[in-house]
Structure formats: C-alpha cells, structure tokens
Design a protein that fits this description.
The complex is a heterodimer of chains A (about 120) and B (about 120).
Chain A lengths: L4 E3 L2 E4 L5 E6 L6 E7 L6 E7 L2 E4 L8 E4 L6 E5 L8 E8 L9 E2 L3 E5 L1
Parallel strand pairs in A: 2-11
Antiparallel strand pairs in A: 1-3, 3-8, 4-5, 4-9, 5-6, 7-8, 9-10, 9-11
Chain B lengths: L2 E3 L4 E5 L4 E3 L2 E3 L5 E8 L6 E7 L7 E2 L2 E6 L4 E6 L8 E9 L8 E2 L3 E6 L1
Parallel strand pairs in B: 2-12
Antiparallel strand pairs in B: 1-4, 3-9, 5-6, 5-10, 7-8, 8-9, 10-11, 10-12
The chains are: A mainly beta (about 120), B mainly beta (about 120).
C-alpha cells in the first residue's frame, strides 16, 4: 500500500486479556517505531526496529509489553494482561533509511480501550 | 534529557490570517532535528516541516514556515493564510542525531481552531 497501515483500528479488551496490534510499514522501509499516545497527550516512544533487530526498547512501560518484527517488515505489538492504564492510541511509524532518515511516516493508529 | 514544551493548549485564528504556534526545546546534543506534525481528528500524524540544528536558513514548506531561533531554543511554526482544514492538533518534536535510532520526542500539542 501507499502508506503505513495498522490493524485493528479499534480494540476493546477486558482487563487481563492479551492483545496484539499489527503494523504494516511502507514497503522497503528499514526503520519502524511504535509510540503510545494517551488522551490529550503527545505520542511517547515505545520501541524501535531496524529491519528485524529491535535496537531500542527503552520506552516499553513494563514487561507486559512485547514487540517483534521477525522478517523485517510487519511488526506486532503485544500487550499481555492488559490494564486500564494501557488505554491509549498506539501509533506505528516507518522511515526509509537507518538512523540517517529524518521523516517518519505514521499510520492511523490503533485505539485500545481496556474496560 | 531532551524535552519539548508547547505552552499553548489551544489557539484560535480567523480564516485567511496567519498564526504562530510556539515550541521551545531543551537538549545537550549539538546535532538534532526539529519537526512539526499535524494530527487531525482522524488520528494520523502528518509531517509538515523539518529544521536541522545546523541549517542556516529557516525551513519553509508552502504555507508553513519554521521560525528557528537556536540561541533561544525555540522552533515556532508559522501558518500563513489559515484555512478551515488547518483545524487540528499540532505537535512539535525533536530527534537527536546519535545512536538512539531516531526516536522522536514530542511536546504536548496545541489545538488550533480556524474560524470562518
């Protein structure tokens, strides 16, 4: 596709359930980022992949959060045992080069609501 | 640590007028980049403009310009000839040019409303 796509667009989970959020980056993009955006806030960095390597996971808030990109293209963000504080929009972004690229292209996000 | 501050939670502007959205930043890195993104109600972050810390001239992209004052650590966005479609959230962000992989640090955002 022409842009970054994410699925599902909306997800409602009961507290304690596991969820998996998918990101399809722009074809050929090396770098992939996940951000978490709480209501009324700016996005906050979660984790970064360069191809299949997860080079930075310093923003993951707890060990319940796990991300993977096994073949260097599609990425999945998994949240185990969801809590109400996990409710947010999860944004995925990709860029064409490694650390030298400056423009990140964002997907539409997945809005997660934990009840 | 890097930090972005946007002090205007909300701004109003009359259609066809210009508006300035404020952004200040804090970093000890000598090399960095500054970005502005627009987020309409649909949720997608749309890249608007970029300024590198060593760029001598202020960046411009169509109706958008970035007023970069390095000594004051400010990177204000100027939108000329506002249009109704400019109504959205606007985020200032910064990226350090080191081995952090290029993650963006965002401010809290400014909600811009354009009045007809």
């Amino acid at each position: 596709g022409a842009g970054v796509s994410q699925s599902p667009r909306y997800k409602v989970a009961k507290r304690g359930q596991d969820v998996a959020l998918r990101c399809d980056p722009i074809s050929g993009h090396v770098s992939l980022f996940w951000y978490q955006q709480a209501l009324g806030q700016g996005p906050e960095f979660l984790t970064y992949f360069q191809n299949e390597a997860q080079l930075d996971k310093s923003g993951l808030p707890s060990d319940r959060f796990f991300a993977e990109r096994p073949e260097g293209s599609v990425s999945t963000l998994k949240i185990q045992r969801t809590q109400q504080e996990d409710s947010a929009v999860y944004l995925c972004a990709s860029s064409s080069l490694g650390t030298g690229a400056y423009e990140q292209y964002f997907g539409p996000g997945t809005r997660l609501t934990v009840t | 640590a890097q930090k972005i501050t946007q002090t205007q939670p909300g701004m109003f502007v009359q259609e066809k007028e210009a508006v300035t959205l404020d952004c200040t930043y804090d970093t000890s890195d000598p090399s960095y980049g500054l970005f502005w993104y627009k987020q309409p109600s649909s949720g997608e972050m749309i890249f608007l403009i970029y300024q590198g810390s060593y760029d001598q001239q202020n960046a411009t992209e169509g109706r958008y310009s970035l007023n970069f004052q390095k000594a004051r650590k400010s990177a204000n966005l100027v939108i000329s000839a506002s249009q109704l479609g400019d109504s959205a959230m606007y985020f200032c962000a910064m990226r350090a040019w080191d081995n952090q992989g290029g993650k963006l640090i965002f401010g809290q955002g400014t909600e811009l409303s354009v009045k007809p």
